[in-house]
Amino acid sequence: MLRKITSVVLAVVVAIILVSLVEMVGHRIWPPPTGLDPTNPESVRTAMAQMPLGALASVAVAWIVGAFGGGWLGSRVARQAWPAYVVGGVVMLASIASLVMLPHPAWFWVVALVLVPLAAHLGGKLGSGPAFPAAPEVNT
């Protein structure tokens, strides 16, 4: 039981870290506009409307990488695929919250509702496989 709880907690933390890291790289490549006040919703809306496609795509990639990586790790630790679905749900809910709070292009909904769960699923499938391949049989 402890392994299962640990796998989910660890996986969600890793997913958050991965999303943050990929988004930070995106912000380094495409910095936010000068004068952006993150506490002012109107300032954020204006900045979102001016962001280049690459900056937006980096956020979408961050969500996908977080769901995949967290899902893989959770499934690897638990030795079952189900933790990936928990991680995928958490990343998807966080993505939807972002979509509701800030204006995003319509294609972000596809990322949040289709690609994030798919990435978590794939991470879970890959992570829940055997840790080490079976040793070959030796005929003596």
Count of separate DSSP helical elements: 5
Main sheet, how many strands, which sense, barrel?
Answer: none
- SSE string: HHHHH
Structural class: mainly alpha
The percent of residues in helical segments reads: over 70%
Integer average pLDDT? 90
Number of domains: 1
Strand content: under 5%
Radius of gyration: 18 Å
How many beta-strand segments?
0
Rough shape?
Answer: elongated
Q: Extract low-pLDDT stretches.
A: none
Termini Cα gap: 41 Å
Could you give the topology of this structure?
Layout: H1 2-29, H2 41-50, H3 53-78, H4 82-101, H5 107-127
Descriptive labels:
single chain, 140 residues, mainly alpha, 5 helices, 75% helix, 0% strand
Polypeptide structure, described:
By secondary structure, the chain is mainly alpha-helical. The chain has one domain (2-127). It has helices at 2-29, 41-50, 53-78, 82-101, 107-127. The longest helix has 28 residues, at 2-29. It is elongated, with a radius of gyration of 18 Å.
Short characterization:
The protein has 140 residues and is an all-alpha fold. It is built from five helices and no strands. The longest helix has 28 residues, at 2-29.
